[in-house]
Each structure stands twice: as structure tokens, then as C-alpha cells.
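go over both lines:
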Amino acid sequence: MSEFLTIAEASRQLAAKTLSPVELTKACLDRVAKLNGTLHAFLLLTEDRALADASKAEARIMAGRPRGPLDGIPIAHKDIYNTAGIRTTGHSKLLRDNVPAKDAVTVAKLADAGTVMMGKLATHEFAMGGPSFDLPWPPARNPWNPEHFTAGSSSGTGAAVASGLILGGTGSDTGGSIRGPAALCGIAGIKPTYGLCSRTGVLPLSFTMDHTGPMAWTVEDCALLLQAMAGHDPTDPASANRPVPNFTAELGQGVKGLRIGVVRHFFETDHPVSSATRQGIAHALEVFEHLGAEISDVTLSPMADYHAVGSIILTAEAYAVHEPWLKERFNDYGELFRDRIALGGLISGSDYVQAVRRRRLLCLELTNAMADLDILVSASQTGEAPKITEVPKWGNLEKPSLTMPFNVTGFPAMSVCGGFGVGGLPVCVQLIAKPFAEPTLFRAGHAYEAATNWRARRPALAMG
């Protein structure tokens, strides 16, 4: 099997028994053997576990007892997700020998859905410090050009999905860590509504801004993965206790009649994006309008306001998580993480409280702005991936983040590929919906992907 399959395509073939889970898994393992030495997407490959999972899935399918559309699908987990009996490091020296006794809740949910667990994927250290070259493992590389950055912190997942090492994977998003790698690696990735997916068993960064979610080649694949991941978890105090909708229910309905707002000042003025990114967004809006959506402009507070609030809350909460280790083992962290996180020790209680107060106002602002809208459009990265050796240490503070507004507010936001720019590197479009309106978000993203041909193009490296 040499062709690249989406989760939806593979699921149909598995159900029809024209493809076996073992055959599919072996094809992915072959790609890992060929490409991971260049991409460094996997920190740990669990080949025996993968083949055992695939064999069990094959037996269920052949016996007519498949568990659903994810049964037999090879995935992997960002290495901040606890996996029982399997090393979970946070890509850090501090946890290089850490073997959890219990799966994260979302890991267990995906296993129960029948997925094939391929291993653990590179991240930025503790989902914040990267790209770092002073850690026990190298940073992941962009499969469109390995000299370039993947963004972070779900870097390994972005690289592995784009290059076909896995069909989907898990990420986390505290300030953009799903949508950034999705954008620079040219895949789809969704930060769901805050509270939709459990975070129990996932190494924390910021208690009030962490989100878990899926990354895959297509919007439809993200919907299938999210279906398994979502749901109330009483052990996560932020978990929303509400029924899980059918995330694929609106796929194929098109966007006719949807009301789409464009936050132009975010990507034209507040943090201007590359010409290819701007062209990609303009083209996406043309596609939506041609398909029957109503387009209008939306003005929010300057993106710097959202970024200041998010940065203060994130850094203070992350410092609170790591303070004991920082005091005892400061030099065991990589330089980028320890320097960025140490700033949290300088944030006063007053600073934090004022950021929380401002956050409430920004949440209300976005709620009011979207009252008569279904979708917002912006960018999720400013342009094509930079060279991995040229990422500035304090880049996260120099200019406001295009993704942070939706961590601050908790609204669901998704990055989809919007074409290709300089050097054949991907550019992106960010789509945002109202809280718990993921089916509509998937509807819009799926309609856009169906109307464009970006999903037909894979990195040359992966094509061999």
C-alpha cells in the first residue's frame, strides 16, 4: 500500500474489508522507518503495541464487530499525554524516565474506539519551550522542507500527519499549539471549545487555557477523532457536562446561508501576514461567497489586548505548575523553556487579577460580535514556516499572536490549509465558531476543502 489515505477513506476500506488494519499499520511503520530520521516526529515508536492493536482490530472487523470509524486507524500521541506503561516525557530531561501507570482520559477514549497506537510524538518542552536544541531529543522538522520550523508545541503531530507517518494524532493548545503546527505543516487541526475534551492525564501548562484536541489531514478526519475524544470527565474540573453532538452531522451541507465575519484588522493591521497568507484568506472568502455564504467585516479590540491578557495568564499559571522544579532543577530545563517560564515569577497578583478581569470583558465582546454570525475568519499563522534555526527566542512576546484570542475566550477555532506560498510551504486560514458549535465549524471547513484542491498535495519528502 503506497497511497496516502485519510481516516475517512481508510475507514471505508477497512469496513469493506478491502484493506486490513495490519497492512495499513505496516505501511505507516515503513514510512516512519524511512522518514523519522529526518523529521524527528516520533520520540518513541511503539511498534509491537501498534501491530498488536492492529491485529485485534482486524479480528474485530473480520468477525463483524468493528468499534466504529476509528477501528484499525493508526494514530500517535503528543508526548504530554500519559500512556500507561509507556514513557511520557514532555520532551524534557526532567521526565526522561517517566512511565505513567494510567492512560490520559482522551488516550483511553481513543483506544476504546479501536485506534492503533503508534507511539509518542515530539513536542516543545512541556508544550512551551521550542524549538530547542539542548534537550535529550531533537525538535521535529517540517516535512515540506526539513530546514524549516513546524511551529509548536504539537510539532511532532503536525510533521507526522503531513508526511503520512500516522493518519491522525493528538495535540494540545494553550496559545495556538494545535493550530500553529497545523498551519505550518499544511494540515487541519482544531482547538475545541474549552471544556469539551478532558485534560486529565495530560501534562498541564495553564489551568484555565489548556485545550486538548485532534490533528489530521482533513477537517472530516478531525471530526471523526473529536467524536471519540469529547465528553464530560468529572475528574477535570473544567469539563463541560453536556451531551456530545454528532460532529459529522453537518458535513456536506455546504455553507449557503451561513453568516461569516472577517476580522481583517487582526491579520492586516495588528499583525500583518505574508502576501501568500493574505491571498489564501481572500480566496477562501471568495469560495465561501461563491458557495452562498454571507460575508461581513467584524471589528474587535486590538489583538494586542487579547495577547497581553493571554500571555499574563498563561505565564503566571505555567510558573505555578513548574515553580517547585524551577527552584530545585532550573538548569535541567532547556534554555528556551526556563527563560520564558521564569518571567512568571515576576508577575504580581494584581497583574494576574487584572488580566482575569479583562478576560471576562473580551469574552463578552466576542460573544456579542458573533451574536448574528456563524463563523469568523482570520489567519492562524503570519506566513510560511521560517527556518528552524531562525526562530527568535522572544518571538512569542514581540508581536501579538493570531491564535491567542481564542484561547483567552475558549471559542472553538480550527486551522485549515489555505494554499502554498514561498518555497512551496503551506499557508493557512483560521475558522472560529461559537462555543460548542463544532459541527458548524466542521461544516464550513469541510466545504472549503471540498471546493479547493489543497488536500491533493503532499510533501515531496513523503512522496519519496
Summary: The mean pLDDT is 97. The longest strand covers residues 413-420. The CA atoms of residues 95 and 114 lie 28 Å apart.
